[in-house]
Amino acid sequence: MDNFVFHNPTTIDFGTGKEQQVGQHLADHGIKKVLLTYGSERIKRDGLFDAVTKSLAAQGIAWVEFGGIVSNPVISTVREAIAVARTHQVEAVLAVGGGSVLDSSKAIAAGVLHDGDVWELFTRAATIKAALPIFSVLTLAATGSEMNSGAVVTNEETREKFAIGSPHTFPKVSIVNPALMQTVSRDYLVYSASDIIAHSIEGYFTAKVQPRFQSRLVEAIIKTVIETTETLLADPTNYGARAEFAWASTQALNGLIYSGTAGFSYPNHMIEHALSALFNVPHGAGLSVIMPAWMKWYHGRNPEQFKRFAEEVFGLDTAEQGIAALEQWFDKIGTPTRLSQLGITEADLPATIDNVLGNAKWFGIAEIYTRDVVTTILKNAL
Amino acid sequence: MDNFVFHNPTTIDFGTGKEQQVGQHLADHGIKKVLLTYGSERIKRDGLFDAVTKSLAAQGIAWVEFGGIVSNPVISTVREAIAVARTHQVEAVLAVGGGSVLDSSKAIAAGVLHDGDVWELFTRAATIKAALPIFSVLTLAATGSEMNSGAVVTNEETREKFAIGSPHTFPKVSIVNPALMQTVSRDYLVYSASDIIAHSIEGYFTAKVQPRFQSRLVEAIIKTVIETTETLLADPTNYGARAEFAWASTQALNGLIYSGTAGFSYPNHMIEHALSALFNVPHGAGLSVIMPAWMKWYHGRNPEQFKRFAEEVFGLDTAEQGIAALEQWFDKIGTPTRLSQLGITEADLPATIDNVLGNAKWFGIAEIYTRDVVTTILKNAL
């Protein structure tokens, strides 16, 4: 096991009705004025916006709205929000939404206190030295952003999808009410399942140091995601399954399963970020296409762990059977497993490969993911 | 899944040589003078005391020593330490040791800032409103005290073994260097294994709401403890096994596996605390006696979960087989499974039962654990 430091200061307030506590949480942190960020206007129709603002008003907290954050969020929107935050001199950012809103809000919170352009924090031209306090009310369980410091945003001019992370960008409090997720569409449920599995397996398969205990935690998450996704496809109102799905999602990317592991990388995310950046495909849909394709290329490099995956997750014997079972499960739940299902054809590969190779430098794995290798993986996914 | 709030602010600095960072951690928190608590003088012989104080000195941090904390720590020692802490006006408590030293240090840290007698915090006559910052260097992985807010101390006059817990008593930073644990005796290794398993199963078997995901996390911990204990009995210097054992121990009682569960209780701890309080038996040794005896009485109340335990942990079919397998495993590793191995005979039962019934009120399960029931369980353990 490798040396590590584990510190996750985020408070998770989990359960039914917890969005009504958001004002109290902000008040506990001394916040008087907040930027309330969100995506579509749906939260105004379904009552969540009212519940949140009522909770803020009850504590005498003023808010400034900033809506319209889209999936695969873009840096231009973050820049606009930073300007609004500065104009109104808000003291905190409250994200009401899914991973895109949360990630954007982290970038906003850090960007407000950064002297230069916020994209410098993503290219690593500058580091995050401070951020406004971040709070969130989660409406989609997938990215784990509610309990980590990371944020992924796309620069639509440069077509780069990069990430930030800092001790300053952990949410202070994230509210996770699984009942708010019952209206998530069938598509976004299965894309979310794919995303959570991707977070779980990147380290599991690629780490040079991968203790057995951490592997068991990963398998607990994946088995839970598989089981609860199937329950929710049959019955979207099953609260228990929604709750376990959400909590497993949080655990997949809050630092726990990566603690003590070493030498891991995020090749599936690296490749998928190119698909999102170029073709604006849903992140989880891109990942369910890439994962089986990547596994078919990669598994010979870590045969024991792939055999373990087959045995522990699917009760099967060989690496190849495990990979096939995962791909078949993706097919079964209805998340794509082929680039063609995303509308991406062989003619798109050269541009895609170029974008991946750009990412490879940022991800620090350009030596392994050469043009030939990336081509092989993407051809597996055609 | 039940509503819950999860917040664990402790920083774990894990790995080889990390005790050399302790001064830096205290300096990061602005500490200039600390009460350094420990148990036996062994840490002076084996170099740990020197490493810790050198690290403090390098940061210009003064320390006041308080040694002699024993296993099953007692409130009189805590009172003495509080007097020392007040005399020297220390700003923090640094525990160097195992669970007894950590638990005592939490009581000291809270007691220093409590106007009345510290035992009032244990009897719930008073609540913890503040505590000095707590830091620790862990030398024995078992109690999970390094990443939780709990502390268990015995009042040797009243023969009560009670607990405290408060948001103020989470350690700020705990250093966990598995290499420091290589000299743990064979006995204390197996007692620790028993203790970790007890932390894992109390909720697993007794919770009225026990989500499957949380059960999987528990099984990951137990399987890891079983596997690494066997490795360490064969090779005490196996760092990887020592590290996984330690990290599993931390996860067993840091709030994770209990998040979202509801209606659980700690009957095995309730009964064992009587053994420790009356006969000063090692906590883990008492637990390995009580657990199989309790399971034989209890399993019919939760047959599905006991069947699950048998299947997932031991690959067996029935509740009875799972219980027998755990008892046999305790026998195999050499932790007691009979009261007689602790020197406790049938003649000791009346006094033991009385003490357990006193605990039952404190633990809030007096209605279930009547004299008859406690007698049945203890007779199972004869």
UniProtKB/TrEMBL annotation, chains A, B:
Keywords: Oxidoreductase. CDD domains: BDH. This is NADH-dependent alcohol dehydrogenase. It comes from the Bacteria. One of its GO terms (molecular function) is alcohol dehydrogenase (NADP+) activity. The keyword Oxidoreductase applies. Residues 9-178 form the Alcohol dehydrogenase iron-type/glycerol dehydrogenase GldA domain. Its cofactor is Fe cation. Signal peptide: none annotated. It comes from Niveibacterium umoris. Pfam families: ADH_Fe_C, Fe-ADH. Belongs to the iron-containing alcohol dehydrogenase family. One of its GO terms (cellular component) is cytosol. Residues 190-381 form the Fe-containing alcohol dehydrogenase-like C-terminal domain.
